[in-house]
Design goal:
By secondary structure, this protein is mostly beta strands. The mean pLDDT is 92. It is built from no helices and 4 strands. It has strands at residues 6-7, 16-23, 34-37, 53-57. It is globular, with a radius of gyration of 10 Å. Helices cover 0% and strands 33% of the residues. It starts with 5 loop residues before the first strand and ends with a strand. The chain has a 4-stranded antiparallel sheet, with no helix packed on it. It holds the Pfam family YjzC. Residues 1-58 are annotated as: Disordered. InterPro entries: YjzC. This is YjzC family protein.
Length: 58
């Protein structure tokens, strides 16, 4: 597990590219989409599963 994971709804600590690490419900995700997010913006749900997810810096 990554140390710096951010959950859907949390604000990004810094601008950059992020990818889904896992789903918040504990399931693994096959979503390899990376997103560009600005500092302060909220992390979205997983683009493919449409569920809350944990994001990590890509």
């Amino acid at each position: 597990m990554a140390d710096n994971r951010y959950k859907t709804g949390e604000n990004a600590p810094e601008s950059g590219k992020y990818k889904v690490d896992s789903l918040a419900n504990g399931n693994t995700s096959n979503d390899d989409t990376t997103i560009e997010i600005e500092k302060g913006d909220q992390f979205p749900p997983s683009p493919s599963e449409h569920e809350a997810a944990y994001w990590v810096k890509a």
